[in-house]
């Protein structure tokens, strides 16, 4: 049988292809360059057959960190190598073991990422939220606000989407500002409240990170008094005070937003879009909602309003109406109403706005 033959050698360090002469020694295979230099000498006991195309014998070394390989295309010389190395792995077991270990490691890495996303990121977000600087939260809120407004304004009304800007609506905007000022003064938040009424027919209100609150036109239409509207606003102020929106968007947008916060970049990539969708679709736990209700009751009592007004407002809104975040994504309405009424302190209250201001606020979206 032939003891020498031609082959192609790759040293595993560079991409260079070497045309070589292969010699079969008594106990080792020697790879010799055309210039006579010995490129490799592999003992038969450390040879492993690697996966290759039909008609190609591809050899490597077991446990070799450098991915050097030798390819033999001469069928007669390949047969000689097989006879010289009877223990050569002809079933590609070593390669299969290598592929299996890669698959196992890949699956372990994927499982780790899933566990991190499901458990690690929410826990990390919850732990980090209290330490997020207020200035960072305000910048996050501004970035989320831009996305939320774009998502809500399905009719592409632009500047007309927000009520209270037309001349006929400005008295209503002024009345809303007076109502919000009372809430803000007693709440003592570290972020300024920015409340906007927008042209959406659903009776809804949402709080964003950094003090932003959207009140839908449909909610103003449902309210029969300034106290009822203020009760909903006080509840949303509770979410802002407890930083529930910030925690929710950090949990949903994950590590990309956390790293963005560290780098001061809130608008790059899709993390802010995810955060905005989270605000619009978020469903808080019963404990979080109960805490916001309790906060709202206390805030209404502080400003001299009706602390039971939120319960009255909740009772008015039928849960069959579409897109009611204030009901569909919250705990059972009856349980909330009972809890709010039980927590409300006794005593009388005065209307938060006089009849003229309330009438103006009801017309805050009058212009078309």
Quick structural gist:
This protein has 368 residues and is of the alpha+beta class. Helix content is 50%, strand content 14%.
Uncertain ranges: 115-119, 320-330
Major sheet: arrangement of strands: 4-3-2-1-7-6-5
Helix content: 40-55%
So what's the overall shape? rod-shaped
Quickly count the helices: 14
Order of helices and strands: EEEEEEEHHHHEEEHHHHHHHHHH
Count of individual domains: 3
Counting DSSP E segments of at least 2 residues, the number of strands comes to 10
Largest sheet: 7 strands, antiparallel
| Distance between the first and last residues' Cα | 96 Å
Taking all residues together, what is the mean pLDDT? 81
Protein model, in words:
The protein is rod-shaped. It has helices at residues 75-84, 93-128, 134-152, 170-187, 217-222, 226-241, 244-253, 255-263, 271-281, 286-302, 309-316, 325-328, 333-343, 355-362; strands at residues 4-10, 18-24, 28-33, 38-43, 47-50, 57-61, 69-72, 194-198, 205-207, 212-216. It has three domains: 4-90, Roll (PH-domain like), CATH 2.30.29; 95-131; 132-362, no CATH class. With 368 residues, it is α+β, with helices and mostly antiparallel strands. The protein has a seven-stranded antiparallel beta sheet. Strands 8-10-9 form a three-stranded mixed beta sheet, sandwiched between helices. The model is unreliable at 115-119 and 320-330 (pLDDT under 50). Strand 9 and strand 10 (212-216) form a beta hairpin. The chain contains 14 helices and ten strands. Helix 4 (170-187) packs across helix 6 (226-241).
